[in-house]
Amino acid sequence: MNLNHLEYLGGFFIINKNDFELSVLETRLGTHYILEACDADSNLLNDKDYIMASLREAINQSNATLIDEISVEFTPQGITAVCLLSESHLSIHTWPEKHYAAIDIFTCGDHSEPLVACDYLIAAFKTINPKIQIIPRGY
């Protein structure tokens, strides 16, 4: 597939459907939850300790298993954190000046509840306009 001719249209790239074959997943390996935390509390989005505690609690409430974590605080503001889970990962990238966080939860298996984590994080960051995309992953 040649992607050199992608057209950018209102936040999306448009691909000519004749360039690839659409298919339904025969084997679902996991689910990807993309949470856009829009209009969130900027002070909370710039507090690394609060963010890490919130991620840990979201993991706990969703019955996922934390293996390791790493976080970085940027100057003048913003945090990036990744939690490695036995089910896959949870990550956050914050833009406090924009009242926005991009949160990514990918899980494999059926025992964890990623939507519970999403709900918890929406409340934790006092998000006014959350958006969630759910993407099945597999082949």
| Radius of gyration (Å) | 17 Å
**How many β-strand stretches?**
8
Tell me the domain tally: 1
The helix count comes to 2
Q: Largest sheet, described in full?
A: 6 strands, antiparallel
CATH topology value: S-adenosylmethionine decarboxylase
Provide the succession of SSEs.
Answer: EEEHEEEEHE
**Tertiary shape:** globular
Helix content: 10-25%
Mean pLDDT: 89
Uncertain runs: none
CATH class categorisation? Alpha Beta
Structural class, from secondary structure content?
Answer: alpha+beta
CATH homologous superfamily label: S-adenosylmethionine decarboxylase
The percentage of residues in β strands lies in: 35-45%
Distance between the termini: 17 Å
Characterise this structure.
The structure is a single chain. This protein has 139 residues and is an alpha+beta fold. It has a single domain, classed as S-adenosylmethionine decarboxylase, CATH 3.60.90. 18% of the residues lie in helices and 42% in strands. It contains 2 helices and 8 strands; from the N terminus they run βββαββββαβ. The protein has a 6-stranded antiparallel β-sheet with strand order 4-5-6-7-3-8, covered by helices on one side. The chain has a two-stranded antiparallel sheet with strand order 1-2. β4 (66-73) and β5 (79-85) form a beta hairpin. α1 (48-61) runs antiparallel to α2 (114-124). The model has no long low-confidence stretch (mean pLDDT 89).
